């Protein structure tokens, strides 16, 4: 697998062919009516870092960091916690695009350390369950009702796709890698000068973060800003 180092700047389009553009969980965005209890749980019990946030016009958007990836929450008045408490993986006839979130822990000891911590906090934990490839515990975000799982990968998959299916799918047998020829090729790639973004409602906070010493601009963004101010001056 070829990874492109984003710090090295944009790679030529040709170099990105057959590479994995998606590199991991960036953030999952959830909804809450109470950011305080949410921070208390995700930061103070689950141990994620509260790394960023924006709040205005009656809502907040806050981000919690794990080693890899973030969980984000929107908070606004008319939000309601999930009430169905549909257990992880159980079938439902309701339209639903989300079942649960699984977070990775590094070791069996860490899995049980988390279980102990949750139970000490009075949160019901199901498991650990040995799924063959991973051991998992299941619990709910106590205020927002979000179904959460923590998983320790107990084996390393060395040949993919590793599938055990009593009705094997032909499409799965095609392999683990993206199969070419099923989707149109890009014939009109966005040229670099059109790789622009319009201002979102969070744009002004960048200046605030920079002036307050809370953030640093990435080199590629410096180039963008330099080009923008050059074209504004023209
Ligand atoms: Fe799961």
Question: Can you walk through the features of this model?
Answer:
With 234 residues, the chain is of the alpha/beta class. The protein has two domains: 23-173, 2,3-Dihydroxybiphenyl 1,2-Dioxygenase, domain 1 (Roll), CATH 3.10.180.10; 197-233, no CATH class. It contains five helices and eight strands; from the N terminus they run E-H-E-E-E-E-H-E-E-E-H-H-H. The strands form two sheets. The chain has a four-stranded mixed beta sheet, with helices on one face. A four-stranded mixed beta sheet has the order 5-8-7-6. The chain is globular and about 65 Å long. The protein starts with 26 loop residues before the first strand and ends with a helix. Bound molecules: fe (ii) ion. Fe (ii) ion is lined by residues 88, 100, 102, 149.
